[in-house]
């Protein structure tokens, strides 16, 4: 069986009853999905697949989704542009994802839990890429469960 480079698991579509919708809020995405995934890599969410966004073009994503019609949700790991650097690689074979606007803070009961970044896909190579209609929202943890704090030794009180 040939494995698709876009997926990183057995991501099969889910058959659900008519009318079922998966529309989590930003706070629900952070606290009920992203945070558990970061803390336990074995965590699986029935509604979300896993993809490598650097090996997958935006138009390939709908068929990789477990559910959804106009919105799809995926877990993916960040790829570094340079092995020793902090810059994120957002390039694919035919274009790149470019950040746009200001990051949005996501709160749970007045506590900052995450950030939401909006990205637009451009075909071609920077700086002469052509803007497309593909938009993606990238979520990251902030606060107690941020990658920065998880990499430090845990404090015991």
UniProtKB/TrEMBL annotation:
Domain NAC as annotated: residue spans: 16-157
GO molecular function: transcription cis-regulatory region binding
Domain of life (superkingdom): Eukaryota
InterPro entries recorded: NAC-dom, NAC_dom_sf
Coiled coil segments of this chain: none
Keyword Protein biosynthesis included in the entry's annotation: no
PANTHER family reported in the protein's UniProt record: NAC DOMAIN-CONTAINING PROTEIN 4, PROTEIN CUP-SHAPED COTYLEDON 2-RELATED
GO terms classed as biological process: regulation of DNA-templated transcription
Keywords, ordered alphabetically: DNA-binding, Nucleus, Transcription, Transcription regulation
Protein's UniProt name: NAC domain-containing protein
């Amino acid at each position: 069986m040939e494995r698709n480079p876009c997926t990183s698991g057995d991501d099969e579509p889910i058959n659900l009853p008519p009318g079922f919708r998966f529309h989590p809020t930003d706070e629900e995405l952070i606290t009920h999905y992203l945070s558990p995934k970061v803390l336990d890599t074995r965590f699986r969410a029935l509604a979300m697949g896993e993809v490598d966004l650097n090996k997958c073009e935006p138009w390939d994503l709908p068929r990789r989704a477990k559910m959804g019609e106009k919105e799809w949700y995926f877990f993916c790991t960040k790829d570094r542009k340079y092995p020793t650097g902090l810059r994120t690689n957002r390039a694919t074979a035919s274009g790149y994802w470019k950040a746009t606007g200001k990051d949005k803070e996501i709160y749970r009961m007045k506590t900052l839990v995450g950030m939401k970044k909006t990205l637009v896909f451009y075909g071609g190579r920077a700086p002469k890429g052509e803007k497309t209609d593909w938009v993606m929202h990238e979520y990251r943890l902030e606060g107690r469960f941020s990658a920065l704090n998880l990499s430090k030794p845990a404090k015991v009180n």
